[in-house]
């Protein structure tokens, strides 16, 4: 069930009505309703993989209790590593088995040996990377005595499978979401309206911007060998906006939907394309994943406390793992490695935390230095996205070679002027709202009410004008 589908447009108000009117007086009943709704939501994708979600939930719930109640350190470690091993085992089998099998066969082939490997002929269970990481963070936090296990199974199951975040995040923490699930929730009109506003902006980013960018990005990437260098640059730019608006659009819809139910989810994006260096970009892009790797991998490895070698090693580990998390393809590993190389000079010069605040805070326009810094960072990011979008390494390298030809200075063969106008409109709104949680949070609040409502109606009209075939969100494949 897609957020941008008619089915979800019917599903959401039904669950909302039952939640606030049928189960309003008891948060336990609300949680049961949320769990049933979340399982139904997931089953609409493919009911055959429900057993994975439920098994993972039961496993982490049970091992969390066993770890906490263990009388010995060895007993605690046993249950901890059982949970870690099984969770990563399922994730590795479904997501990475074919990659390792093909890589193994290719390596032997280079040595003159031919082997037939058994390939896994099954689709990747949607959301497995996200709900697995929910469970892993919960188990790790219990193991290190940061939290106590949740003994109410329904409450824990809602934390893992809450439908707004189930299939593409944000990756939640038990310390943040569980307390909200465990307390009484009363309808808050202001919070609900804010949620609807964020849903509207998320749908605009997905349907109007991402899906239209995807149309031209696909044309260019799928026929890159016959495109001019200037057209290939446009293809990379279109994909850059596609992936941001697709994924941040999903996150906006997820956060806005959760607000309708009185729940605040972790923020996942903070206007990353306005970053002044790569370190700032990674503090603003897919925040829940970046902070997950920071807290559960980077810091346990020693973080930045050791010598230069340890800092460099840990940085490369984090970026390579992040790339591999996104998919079983060498292109994702190359993307992670490239971002590590971008990040390294900042780390070595101890400048990776120079840009903490919002760019041009309190000002309408950035200064020339900020413009240059954002331009360089954005260019580096666009270049890295080529690897992310390419079918394989051969495709990525040929695409880049195609850019750096004489045709780079020619007029692009594809010039969708209406899309350029939409992108300009979108960038202006994002820039004006960059100091808030999302672009529309306070946008137009100083306008007359009629003008503000007219702006919302304009966005709705644009949704219907550009709404075509339902397009899946990119991060469902991860």
Q: Summarize this, please?
A:
The chain is mainly α and 478 residues long. The protein is built from 17 helices and no strands.
Fold blueprint:
Elements: H1 6-22, H2 27-46, H3 50-69, H4 73-110, H5 128-143, H6 153-161, H7 174-181, H8 189-222, H9 229-260, H10 278-284, H11 287-298, H12 308-326, H13 330-348, H14 368-389, H15 393-403, H16 417-432, H17 449-466
Helix pairs in contact: 1-2, 2-6, 3-4, 3-5, 3-6, 4-5, 6-7, 8-9, 8-16, 8-17, 9-14, 9-15, 11-12, 12-13, 13-14, 14-15
> Which band does the percent of strand residues land in?
under 5%
SSE-based structural type: mainly alpha
> What's the gyration radius in Å?
23 Å
Terminal Cα span: 17 Å
Helices and strands, in order, run as HHHHHHHHHHHHHHHHH
pLDDT below 50 for ≥5 consecutive residues: which ranges? none
Strand segment tally: 0
Helix content: 55-70%
Mean pLDDT: 90
Shape: globular
Outline the biggest β-sheet.
none
Number of helices: 17
3D structure, described in words:
The radius of gyration is 23 Å and the shape is globular. The protein is mainly α. Helix 9 crosses helix 15. The chain has 17 helices and no strands.
What structural keywords apply?
single chain; 478 residues; globular; mainly alpha
């Amino acid at each position: 069930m897609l957020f941008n589908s008619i089915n979800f447009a019917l599903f959401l108000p039904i669950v909302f009505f039952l939640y606030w009117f049928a189960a309003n007086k008891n948060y336990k009943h609300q949680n049961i309703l949320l769990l049933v709704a979340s399982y139904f939501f997931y089953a609409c994708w493919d009911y055959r993989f429900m057993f994975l979600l439920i098994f993972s939930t039961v496993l982490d719930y049970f091992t969390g209790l066993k770890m906490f109640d263990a009388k010995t350190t060895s007993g605690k470690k046993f249950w901890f590593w059982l949970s870690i091993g099984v969770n990563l085992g399922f994730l590795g089998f479904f997501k990475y088995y074919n990659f390792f099998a093909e890589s193994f066969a290719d390596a032997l082939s280079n040595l003159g040996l031919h082997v037939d490997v058994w390939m896994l002929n099954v689709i990747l269970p949607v959301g497995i990377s996200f709900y697995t990481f929910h469970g892993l963070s919960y188990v790790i936090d219990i193991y290190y005595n940061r939290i106590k296990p949740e003994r109410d199974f329904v409450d824990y199951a809602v934390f893992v499978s809450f439908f707004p975040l189930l299939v593409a995040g944000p990756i939640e923490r038990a310390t943040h979401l569980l307390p909200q699930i465990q307390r009484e929730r009363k309808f808050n009109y202001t919070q609900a309206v804010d949620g609807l506003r964020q849903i509207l902006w998320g749908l605009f980013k997905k349907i109007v911007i991402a899906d239209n960018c995807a149309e031209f990005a696909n044309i260019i990437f799928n026929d890159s060998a016959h495109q001019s260098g200037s057209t290939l640059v446009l293809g990379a730019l279109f994909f850059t906006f596609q992936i941001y608006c697709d994924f941040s659009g999903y996150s906006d819809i997820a956060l806005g939907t959760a607000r309708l139910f009185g729940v605040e989810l972790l923020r996942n994006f903070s206007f990353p394309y306005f970053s002044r260096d790569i370190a700032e970009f990674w503090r603003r892009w897919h925040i829940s994943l970046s902070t997950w790797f920071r807290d559960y991998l980077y810091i346990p490895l020693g973080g930045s406390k050791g010598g230069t070698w340890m800092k460099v090693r840990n940085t490369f580990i984090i970026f390579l793992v992040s790339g591999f998390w996104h998919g079983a393809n060498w292109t994702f590993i190359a993307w992670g490695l490239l971002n590590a190389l971008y990040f390294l000079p900042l780390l070595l010069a101890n400048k990776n935390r120079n840009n903490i605040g919002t760019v041009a805070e309190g000002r309408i326009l950035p200064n020339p230095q900020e413009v240059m810094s954002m331009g360089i960072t954005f260019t580096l990011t666009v270049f890295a996205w080529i690897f992310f979008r390419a079918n394989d390494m051969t495709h990525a390298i040929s695409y880049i070679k195609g850019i750096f030809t004489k045709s780079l200075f020619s007029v692009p063969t594809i010039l969708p002027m209406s899309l350029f106008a939409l992108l300009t409109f979108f960038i202006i709104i994002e820039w004006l709202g960059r100091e808030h949680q999302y672009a529309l949070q306070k946008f137009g609040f100083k306008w007359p009410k009629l003008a503000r409502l007219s702006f919302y109606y304009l966005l709705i009209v644009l949704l219907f004008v550009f709404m075509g075939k339902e397009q899946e969100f990119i991060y469902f494949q991860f």
